[in-house]
Amino acid sequence: MRQRHIILIALTLLIAAALLWWFRPWSPYSPSVMVNLFHPDHRVENFRHMERVFPYRTLQAADTPYQFPRQPGTLPQHFTYDGRTVEVSEFMRRTETTGLLVLRDGAIRVEEYFLGANEHDRFTSWSMAKTVVATLIAIAHKDGHIPSLQAPVSEYVPELAGRAWGDVTIHNLLLMASGIAFDELYDVAFSDIKMLFYRVFLLGNSVHGTIADLPAGTAQGERLHYISPNTQILGWVLENAVGRPVSEYAQSALWQPLGMEKDAIWSLDQSGTELAFCCLNATLRDYAKLGLLYLQQGQWQGQQVLPENWVREATQRNEPWLAAGNGYSERGYGYHLWIPAEADQEYFFNGVWGQSIWVSEKERVVVVKTSVDPEFRPHTAEMIAFMRAVSAWQ
Asked: Which UniProt keywords are given for this protein, alphabetically ordered (predicted)?
């Protein structure tokens, strides 16, 4: 009888401990909240209120915010994709668009919000943050914090010396060609990327500790293999090179010079490290400024923010294994930028669930589209057709 009571008490304590861990009443960030991040009933709201889901660090609005001029315009009513005519309004609904902003010649032509969103909302970037990290690497390179992109990771992160990451060059990280073994499969329950999310988001493990011992799979610099840990390691390199957290460097290197209008936030793991591979949150207008910086070849109001040749080197690669068809039929890759097939001075930032900053140098257009689209992957080629139609519309 006594043994039964002991077992009952032990089980009760275990259940209580599990419930405490799940709900964490001492913290606003608990597995009970994080597990609902992608739930159909919550994701629209979550994607513009990530401060409710993860801890974060704030990037403050610029001391002198820059406001775009406005020249009101319209969207095309239709575009052509795969031999058929698609209604723009239907495409916007089907891809669960939350915001759309079109710049032409540096002026806002279209700015629209959907699904309850408004101009003050911070929309989560998902992997568009990868391009922001690469942009910060470019600025650190220009400013002398990272003299050579051919330097190995271990030069800036000595903790990784002797591990697979240690000899990988910054250049090959930028090209998603580290050779590290990792699968980025979002539709497989226990893929490497899903396990990364579980360990960091639910179990509270540090993101750096989670990826530090990933093994080499192939030689570096030989093939495009898009994986989020490449960007997280770039963030680690950047933090050590500049001596500041990623978001603090972004504050001084991008948010102030570009005159960002609103505070942004960068989501953190439980140890206070930026989730560099995914989780910047900003307004449409401030995302548009990042696109315009690239459109202007790294210049902003007379200041050369990026290295002079960075945009060309980032978007016009000669490596055949980076061209469209090497893993992605509709797009190729550069320095953390996507290049559409048969590109005509076009490239884009891109994140899961349908986040994009599109740049058309030829048409002098930047388009920002945020979405909550569970079918984002099969919609990618159609999204490119949509962006081209919007860019060409006068």
From this structure: Membrane, Transmembrane, Transmembrane helix
Half-sphere exposure of 285 (CA within 13 A, CB side): 21
- As averages over each run of 10 residues, the pLDDT of the chain (394 residues) reads 70 62 64 79 95 96 97 97 97 98 98 98 98 98 98 98 98 98 88 92 92 97 97 98 98 98 97 96 98 98 97 97 95 98 97 98 98 97 98 91
In a domain, 316, yes or no: yes
Q: Give the CATH number for residue 320.
A: 3.40.710.10
Name the pTM for this structure: 0.94
Instruction: Please count the structural domains in the chain.
Output: 1
Residue 230 belongs to a domain: yes
User: In degrees to the nearest 10, what's the CA dihedral of 181, 323, 88, 356?
Assistant: 50
**Cα(63)–Cα(238) distance, integer angstroms:** 24
Give the separation between CA 390 and CA 112, rounded to whole angstroms. Answer: 14
How many angstroms from the chain centroid is the CA of residue 293?
A: 17
Locate all alpha helices (DSSP H) within 331-379, ordered by sequence. Answer: none
Residue 277 pLDDT: 97
Distance, first Cα to last Cα, the chain = 83
Range of the domain at 364: 43-392
- 281-310 as b/e, with b when 16 or more CB fall inside 10 Å? bbbbbbbbbbbbbbbbebebeeeebbbeeb
Q: Would residue 137 count as lying in a domain?
A: yes
CB neighbour burial string for 92-119, b if at least 16 within 10 angstroms, e if fewer: beebbbbbbbbbbeeebbbbebbbebee
